[in-house]
Automatic annotation (TrEMBL):
Belongs to the acyl-CoA dehydrogenase family. Pfam families: Acyl-CoA_dh_1, Acyl-CoA_dh_M, Acyl-CoA_dh_N. Residues 24-136 form the Acyl-CoA dehydrogenase/oxidase N-terminal domain. This is Acyl-CoA dehydrogenase. Its cofactor is FAD. Keywords: FAD, Flavoprotein, Oxidoreductase, Transit peptide. Residues 246-392 form the Acyl-CoA dehydrogenase/oxidase C-terminal domain. Residues 140-233 form the Acyl-CoA oxidase/dehydrogenase middle domain. The keyword Chloroplast does not apply.
Amino acid sequence: MSATSKLPPFDPSDPIGIDDLLAPEDLAIRETVRNWAADRVLPHIADWYERGELPGIRELARELGSIGALGMSLEGYGCAGASAVQYGLACLELEAADSGIRSLVSVQGSLAMYAIHRFGSEEQKQRWLPGMAAGEIIGCFGLTEPDHGSDPAGMRTYAKKDGADWVLTGRKMWITNGSVAGVAVVWAQTDDGIGAIRGFVVPTDAAGFSAPEIKHKWSLRASVTSELVMDEVRLPADAVLPEATGLKGPLSCLSHARYGIVWGAMGAARASFEAAVDYAKTREQFGKPIGGFQLTQAKLADMAVELHKGILLAHHLGQRMDAGRLRPEQVSFGKLNNVREAIEICRTSRTILGANGISLEYPVMRHATNLESVLTYEGTVEMHQLVLGKALTGLDAFR
């Protein structure tokens, strides 16, 4: 650049120019998802959250299918075949509306659909994926159990052979989409010599299957969360995911979903940060807007630095995924950093809004309480710290 070249103006919404890294198609997808969320979620989300409901979830799923947001990074079977970066941008925009909406999409696409797409038979893919991509069929993913979260190898759900069939018995807990799902991907212990843990594609109308909804949540309130109960659910031999044996199957699904969280957490952080900036420019104390005081500006500057560092990290990991070079340890790096920083941004934003920060008139407290769940699910802080610790030292401290 010559000395006489004119620099582009400073953009407060993109202070380090991350948009320069995005292709026109990336920006178009981001705009589509942002507009959908602004039209269909933001006008209603405070009410849904206060009521602890996600009404019209089936209609929302069909609309998300119509814009290509379900299983969007998968190829074929009605899926959009988008890049990892494009999927990440969609996750950011969805979670900027609410974590519950992003969770709906993540569980559908990155867990249930991804499991079938990567590990399923051609018959399973043809049967389930087109309807799931369109939002006509909602899926859920059953791994976590009441007594086994961070240690899924200890799961008690069990599938035993009975002739050519399998009989599935057990319970799963904290399952997003469970009560409205038409299909569940359930992981269970078996006595199969190929691999003790196997995945099963379970139609939720099967006899013995039920999914009571979990109520009284103070986080992810605008999300359907359920328990899965399998009471001797009889499944045909072709219900097994043929290409998944052992824990590698479900853990690879979780890694794919965690990648979306790396982006999504920054959406919650951005919404809270933007609310704080707007409030700081209009709320007056001591004769001027509080945004004109040094302490407030210091908070805003620190939040902006962490927010856009997090988005830059997410973009970098997305490029690695698109290049086939993203390791699970790197996903742990991103989830650990971005969710932790997002919560801190929400808490700091709340201090700028003062008492108004706890009101549902503003999004800050809603995002902060949602992120308390995001911090824990799909790998707690401690688990991701230990993943990185093992990678850094070569020593396993899990036990």
